């Protein structure tokens, strides 16, 4: 499958034994250490093993220091702009490798091999790259789509259940986007490869004319503004997938409260979320911080002015961007999801 995104193109290829196909004198690899451990035969075709940099992926290591290590590695391997940088791992790895590739020598060739569900359908797709900067998640980054993304669903067998669920929540989120076939596909329980393919198509449809996240792409943030507050007040103890799932419920509730949807449509949306057993509540122990700091966190997220952009539902179960200054109400709605 080939997708245009602004002036570039990304080819998505489902395949196994990917490294065997890519290996070439001018290719270097940066791999998530866990993946490297779990798949010892991954690099069997690579004669010069010094071309492989093993990266310990965590949100703490997705930083300037690791980026510098990657630059040193690229320099040591005398990588030029025509050489191929291959990033293999979850979203943390593909984000930092993509950022390194987009900036080293003002941009090198980039191929990604995502190894998590979230990576396959989201992080490796659409060209957003980044590292964390202090406490600001993805505070530094660029837009740099990979020329190819290889998907091998065998990687998913070893993924931790919680991480798999995070990817799944993003798929459910995408099922609410216009023209996506995901909603029917999820009901008929099609196989994971077909679902991944459709999720990738859906994501590209929203990025292809909006690489820089100014228009259609913002609908992909459904559940994220609400969810991010929960992640932040819990010091990221509430996993991203769970926070987004509750965030989608909160978006539905906010839409109902301000009459963008009827009670009937509200119930239909909630039924869809329940059908896939998406989380409903967060632990009450985060409530005090939510009440005290929630609004401040929302304000940090605001872009140029006082308004927050929320992705909400209308009566046709379509999504739209709603600009509002009602940050107190956003927090109030989130409070209703605390476990009692
Ligand atoms: N660029 C984007 O558009 C975009 C979109 C969504 C998320 N992200 C970023 O992605 C990151 C989260 O990514 P993620 O959820 O893919 O996870 P991750 O990179 O955090 O990986 C999760 C854990 O799984 C391990 N792992 C990776 N592949 C594995 C496998 N096949 N089997 C077993 N373990 C494996 C990793 O070592 C890590 O410990 C965040 O930093 C987020 O900001 C980026």
Tags for this model:
single chain; 340 residues; alpha/beta; two-stranded antiparallel ribbon; 13 helices; binds nicotinamide-adenine-dinucleotide
Strands, total number: 11
User: What does the radius of gyration come to?
Assistant: 20 Å
> How widely separated are the two ends?
47 Å
How many helix segments? 13
Secondary structure elements and pairings:
Elements: E1 2-5, E2 8-14, H1 18-22, E3 27-32, H2 33-38, E4 52-55, H3 64-76, E5 84-89, H4 91-103, E6 109-114, H5 117-123, E7 128-133, E8 136-143, E9 148-151, H6 161-175, H7 182-187, H8 192-207, H9 224-233, H10 240-257, H11 263-275, H12 287-301, E10 308-313, E11 319-324, H13 327-335
Parallel strand pairs: 2-9, 3-4, 3-5, 5-6, 6-9
Antiparallel strand pairs: 1-2, 7-8, 10-11
The chain binds nicotinamide-adenine-dinucleotide.
Residues 32, 34-35, 38, 57, 59, 62, 89-93, 95, 115-116, 118-119, 122-123, 126, 128, 138, 155, 158-159, 163, 166 line the site of nicotinamide-adenine-dinucleotide (NAD).
